[in-house]
Specification:
Number of strands: 18
Number of domains: 3
CATH architecture of the largest domain: 2-Layer Sandwich
CATH topology of the largest domain: Nucleotidyltransferase, domain 5
Oligomer: single chain
Structural class: alpha+beta
Distance between the termini: 36 Å
Radius of gyration: 27 Å
Low-confidence stretches: none
Largest sheet: 6 strands, mixed
CATH class of the largest domain: Alpha Beta
Helix content: 25-40%
C-alpha cells in the first residue's frame, strides 16, 4: 500500500507498506527525459506529441520542469514495472501505534498552537500490546507494577492484557527528542484521539520552543502540509476517522473518547476528582494510569470497529498516498488520470484558462418541507443515486458537449445525444467516469454479497447450524 511519494531533486522517493506492515522505500532516479509536465498547445505547435492527447482531445506538448506535478507523479507510478507496482500497491495494512500526551494544566485549557506548558507524559501503545509511558517525573518500581495490574483490571471484561513499561527522562527536551527521533520516524502509522489537531500540533510547537528540529521525526527530514506531519510516516486522527466513516454506532451523542469508548467497548475512561493537574501533583500513579488507559482505549476501539481500514482501503483502491484518502478530489483525480492513461490521454496544464473567472454551480435540490404533522409518510432511499444518474446520463468532463435551453432540448438535439433536464447535452459514447463508476459499483455489489455470506456463515457457526 502506497504511503507517500516525494520528489527530491532528480530522485523520486516512494514509501509503502510491505506484507509485515512495515514501511519500506523505493528510490528512482529521474532521467533528463522524465523532467517534464504535460501542457495543452495549439494544433500548429511543432512540439506537440503525436501519440498523446489531452483529456478533451486537444494536442499537448512536454513542458520542461524541475518538479513533476501531481498528474505526472500518478503517470510515473502507473508506468513502473509489474513487480514494483505489486510491492507498492499491495493491499497491506500498516503496523499502527497509538499515542496520547498529557501536559501541565494551568487555569486555561492548553492551546496546541501556543504550547505554553510542558508535556509531562507521552503514552505509546504498540501493536504487540505494550503500553509504554515516557515521562519527566519518576514512578517507583512497585508503583509501575501496580499501574500495570490496574490497566489489565480495567480491561479484564475484554479478555485482553497489556505489558506496561515506564521510562523516566531528565528533561522535557530529552523526552521529546527521544520520541521524535527514536519513536516517530520508525512508526509505520501513528494515531490517537484528536491526535493531529491537538497532540501532534502541541508536540510540534513544544519542540520548536525547546530548540528541537521537528524534521528529525521524518526518515527523509521533511514535514508535510499545514499540519507539518513527518514525510513517509503514516499519521491519521482516529477521532476524525470515526466521525467521517464509522457506521457501527447508530447514534453518536458526541465524539468524546469517554462516550465512544462506552458505546463501542462498554469501557469508560478513568474517573478522578478535581483537575488533571491535581491528579498529576497528588496522585501521580493514577495520572500515569489515566494516560495509559486513554491510549489503550483508542487501540481497542480500532480493533473492534476497524474504521481506519476504510480510509486505507480507499487509498489502496485509488492508488493514492494515505495522506490524501480523506480528499474526494484526490481520489477522483487519481481514478480519472489512470483511466485516461490507458487511452493515451492525459490531464495537462491549460494556460489559456488561467484568467477565466471561477463560477458557481447549483448543488443538490432540497425541497422545502410542509410544516406540520402528517400521516402515512413514506421515505424513499435510492441506491447510489448520484453515481447512477451520472452513469445514466453519461456525465463526465470529456462527454459534455454544450448546454441548451431546457424547454427546447428535444427539438434541437440529435438522437445520438443524451440531454439532461437542465439542458446539459452529453455524448452517448461511454465516458471515462461512466467506466470508473460502473467498475466501482460492480465491485461494491460483489463485496456486499460476500459480506452478507460471511455474516451468515458466522451467524450459523455461533449457533452450531450446519449448512
Amino acid at each position: 500500500m502506497l504511503l507517500d511519494i516525494k520528489q527530491q531533486g532528480n530522485t523520486i522517493w516512494v514509501s509503502y507498506y510491505n506484507l509485515d506492515g512495515k514501511t519500506r522505500f523505493k528510490e528512482y532516479a529521474l532521467e533528463s527525459s522524465d523532467m517534464f509536465n504535460w501542457q495543452v498547445c495549439d494544433d500548429t505547435d511543432s512540439r506537440q506529441d503525436s501519440k498523446i492527447k489531452n483529456w478533451d482531445g486537444r494536442p499537448v506538448k512536454k513542458s520542461r520542469t524541475k518538479y513533476l506535478n501531481k498528474y505526472r507523479l500518478i503517470e510515473f507510478l502507473a508506468k513502473l514495472g509489474f513487480s514494483d507496482r505489486e510491492l507498492i500497491f499491495g493491499y497491506n495494512f500498516p503496523k499502527t501505534y497509538f499515542v496520547d500526551i498529557e501536559v501541565e494544566v494551568t487555569d486555561e485549557f492548553p492551546d496546541p498552537s501556543e504550547a505554553k506548558t510542558p508535556i509531562t507524559a507521552i503514552c505509546v501503545v504498540t501493536p504487540s500490546k505494550q503500553a509504554i509511558v515516557l515521562a519527566t517525573k519518576n514512578l517507583p518500581k512497585d508503583q509501575i507494577n501496580k499501574v500495570g495490574q490496574k490497566i489489565n483490571k480495567h480491561f479484564e471484561e475484554l479478555n485482553v492484557t497489556y505489558q506496561f513499561e515506564f521510562k523516566k527522562f531528565e528533561s522535557e527536551y530529552d523526552l521529546l527528542y527521544t520520541f521524535f527521533y527514536k519513536f516517530v520516524r520508525n512508526f509505520p502509522m501513528m494515531t490517537g484521539w484528536n491526535y493531529v489537531n491537538f497532540d501532534w500540533k502541541y508536540m510540534l510547537n513544544r519542540a520548536k520552543k525547546l530548540g528541537i528540529d521537528p524534521t528529525i521525526a521524518s526518515p527523509t527530514g521533511e514535514l508535510l502540509n499545514n499540519n507539518e506531519l513527518p514525510a513517509h510516516v503514516g499519521c491519521m486522527d482516529y477521532m476524525d476517522i470515526y466521525a467521517k466513516w464509522d457506521r457501527s454506532v447508530d447514534i453518536k451523542e458526541n465524539f468524546k473518547l469517554d462516550t465512544v469508548g462506552k458505546a463501542v467497548l462498554g469501557i469508560n475512561k478513568v474517573k478522578y476528582d478535581g483537575t488533571l493537574q491535581d491528579l498529576y501533583e497528588k496522585e501521580y500513579p493514577k495520572f500515569i494510569f489515566y494516560n495509559a488507559v486513554d491510549t489503550i482505549l483508542v487501540q481497542l476501539i480500532h480493533e473492534k470497529i476497524k474504521t481506519m481500514e476504510i480510509a486505507l482501503t480507499i487509498a489502496h483502491m485509488s492508488q493514492i498516498s494515505i495522506f490524501k484518502a480523506a480528499s474526494p478530489v484526490a481520489v477522483t483525480e487519481s481514478l480519472i488520470c489512470k483511466s485516461l492513461l490507458d487511452k493515451n490521454l492525459v490531464m495537462a496544464k491549460d494556460f489559456s484558462n488561467l484568467n477565466k473567472k471561477s463560477g458557481k454551480f447549483k448543488g443538490a435540490f432540497v425541497k422545502d418541507p410542509i410544516v406540520g404533522m402528517h400521516h402515512a409518510v413514506a421515505c424513499f432511499d435510492f441506491a447510489s443515486l448520484y453515481p447512477s444518474i451520472m452513469r445514466q446520463m453519461n456525465v463526465s468532463p470529456e462527454s459534455l458537449i454544450k448546454k441548451v435551453d431546457p424547454s427546447k432540448r428535444n427539438a434541437e438535439i440529435a438522437d445520438d445525444r443524451i440531454v439532461a433536464v437542465n439542458g446539459a447535452v452529453y455524448n452517448a459514447e461511454t465516458s471515462i467516469l461512466k467506466d470508473i463508476l460502473s467498475d466501482l459499483y460492480s465491485q461494491r455489489k460483489d463485496y456486499k454479497k460476500k459480506s452478507f455470506e460471511l455474516q451468515q456463515k458466522a451467524y450459523n457457526l455461533e449457533r452450531g447450524i450446519s449448512k
